[in-house]
């Protein structure tokens, strides 16, 4: 009995020793630590006059940033901007509210591929709610909607999936034209939800210019912004329902997570490897990623639309170039991309030596991009287009300012004992995405008064299926939740019908780009209204699920 106890104790102690030996020790050669790369790419531009405060548009390159989609921790935008309200004096304190959507990938994207999607991204004060498009907001709890009803569908020809607007699979460097212009689709109100706070009539409307769709798509209802002032009246009249938009906004690319790993060699030097990260490559070897960034005043479109709605001649919808301001790019830029593990304090996280392989470029005053160090980047061509892949390997050094920095190194110069050469970044196996489903209660705004035709289905390139119905424009759920009386909704219905008759999807509204090719929306999202519903009706998604 004693021998058995001694043997058991010996085995137990041996197991403890082996377990201790197998615990990773920071700094050990060949020990690979998981990390990430994150930060901003900055795009300086010259300022424009503050009178251009009625909206903006840009052409942003769309491409597969990562060679392989790395799972739902991945979150990054491509190049874009933020649109904040403009004030006559100081902005309200402790208040953040804007429109900041664009092209990219997000952690709550359910049907993600290497091809980016587009979201609208309206944010009410301090991220209490946000609206990403028709039927899409913060979370998916329809019992407590947070921005889900914040965007109304305007176009009868473009279906908006709740997971974001899909681009055509394989998009690789083409320009996606988009912008927001204020339109007077509604009338100002002196009360909001029965309270003595006003709601303005700035309906910030998304316009697109792509190869297969052009024109207005959807708009933020003024109530999306103003309803928060019912409980916080100090903000009344201070949000985008009432305020113009500041024209001098930042142009950046915000990256929150790209997979990375790092390890030490036998000498104790630290090396890192990032997931293959690419930029589009143009015919001259450079990358043009922003083009024709324009800003508008109310004479550019608002005034003509206002006159039209008051009984005047129909507005063409085309933006007046004489009332347009243009950003000019001086060909400068910066980067704050850093590689780090979670154990590294933020103040000690080292930046990559971006300028060692990238030089900002302005091939013309209205375009911005990069030239590349051909000795450090690699070229990849495919049937969809050409890409420049950034250096994958880096070594941590102390620069001339006594700061840590990651400098790119060639694969052959990475010591074998780090084990980094054997690392791969495959798409992880994840659970089947949960479907997006809208309320099915017969008494809900989705059913009462409800749709007039459907259901229909669209099979998308991201391997999801969208179920949708056709609703009378004024009876769509967003407008039933926009604090509008029946008379106000009917007035809005009349204006939508005027737009449907006159603003078709096949002519220009935003000025055409002077360079590059236009991107395409997933063709499955371009829809045709049923016979008899061509004017005054819109497609509304009620479900999005993975294909069987």
What does the model show?
It contains 5 helices and 34 strands. It is mainly β. The protein has a domain at 49-254 and 288-328 and 432-546. Strand 27 and strand 28 form a beta hairpin. The longest helix has 21 residues, at 2-22. The protein starts with a helix and ends with a strand.
Q: What is the CA-atom radius of gyration, in angstroms?
A: 26 Å
Number of strands: 34
Low-pLDDT residue intervals, each spanning 5 or more residues: 1-27
- In whole angstroms, the N-to-C terminal distance is 61 Å
Considering DSSP H and I runs of 4 or more, what fraction of the residues is helical? 10-25%
Tell me the major beta sheet: 9 strands, antiparallel
Helix count from the secondary structure assignment? 5
- What share of residues are in beta strands? 25-35%
Shape: globular
Mean pLDDT: 93
Q: State the secondary-structure class.
A: mainly beta
């Amino acid at each position: 009995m004693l021998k058995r106890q001694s043997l058991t104790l010996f085995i137990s102690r041996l197991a403890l020793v082996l377990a201790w030996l197998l615990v990773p020790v920071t700094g050990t050669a060949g020990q690979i630590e998981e990390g990430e790369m994150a930060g901003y790419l900055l795009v300086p531009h010259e300022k424009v006059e503050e009178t251009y405060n009625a909206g903006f548009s840009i052409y942003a390159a769309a491409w597969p940033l990562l060679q392989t989609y790395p799972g739902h921790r991945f979150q990054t935008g491509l190049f874009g901007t933020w649109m904040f309200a403009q004030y006559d004096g100081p902005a309200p304190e402790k208040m953040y509210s804007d429109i900041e959507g664009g092209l990219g990938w997000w952690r709550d994207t359910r049907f993600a591929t290497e091809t980016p999607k587009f979201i609208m991204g309206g944010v009410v004060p301090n991220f209490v709610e946000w609206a990403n498009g028709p039927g899409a907001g913060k979370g998916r709890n329809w019992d407590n909607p947070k921005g889900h009803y914040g965007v109304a569908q305007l176009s009868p020809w473009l279906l908006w999936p709740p997971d974001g607007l899909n681009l055509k699979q394989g998009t690789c460097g083409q320009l996606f034209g988009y912008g927001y212009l204020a339109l007077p689709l509604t009338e100002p109100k002196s009360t909001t939800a029965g309270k003595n706070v006003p709601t303005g009539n700035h309906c910030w409307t998304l316009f697109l210019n792509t190869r297969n769709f052009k024109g207005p798509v959807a708009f933020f209802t003024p109530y999306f912004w103003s309803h928060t002032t019912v409980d916080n009246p100090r903000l009344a009249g201070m949000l985008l329902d009432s305020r113009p938009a500041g024209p001098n906004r930042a142009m950046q690319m915000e990256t929150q997570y790209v997979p990375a790993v790092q390890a030490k060699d036998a000498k104790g030097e630290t090396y890192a490897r990032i997931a293959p990260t690419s930029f589009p490559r143009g015919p001259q070897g450079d990358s043009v990623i922003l083009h024709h960034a324009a800003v508008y005043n109310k004479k550019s479109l608002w005034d003509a639309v206002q006159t039209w709605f008051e009984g005047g001649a129909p507005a063409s919808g085309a933006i007046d170039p004489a009332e347009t301001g243009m950003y000019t790019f001086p060909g400068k830029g910066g980067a704050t991309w850093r590689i780090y593990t979670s154990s590294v304090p933020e103040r000690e996280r080292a930046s990559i030596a971006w300028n060692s392989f990238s030089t900002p470029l302005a091939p013309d005053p209205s375009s911005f991009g990069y030239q590349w160090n051909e000795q450090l980047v690699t070229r990849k061509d495919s049937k969809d287009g050409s890409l420049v892949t950034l250096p994958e390997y880096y070594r941590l050094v102390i620069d001339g300012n006594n700061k840590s920095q990651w400098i790119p190194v060639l694969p052959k110069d990475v010591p074998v004992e780090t084990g980094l050469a054997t690392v791969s970044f495959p798409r992880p196996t994840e659970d089947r995405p949960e479907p997006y489903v809208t309320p099915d209660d017969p008494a809900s705004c989705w059913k009462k008064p409800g749709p007039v035709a459907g259901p229909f289905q669209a099979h998308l390139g991201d391997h999801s299926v969208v179920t949708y119905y056709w609703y009378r424009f004024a009876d769509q759920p967003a407008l039933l939740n926009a604090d509008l009386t029946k008379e106000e909704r009917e007035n809005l219905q009349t204006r939508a019908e005027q737009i449907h008759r006159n603003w078709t999807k096949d002519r220009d509204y935003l000025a055409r780009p002077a360079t590059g090719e236009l991107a395409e929306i997933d063709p499955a999202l371009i829809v045709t209204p049923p016979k008899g519903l061509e004017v005054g009706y819109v497609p509304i998604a009620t479900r999005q699920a993975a294909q069987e």
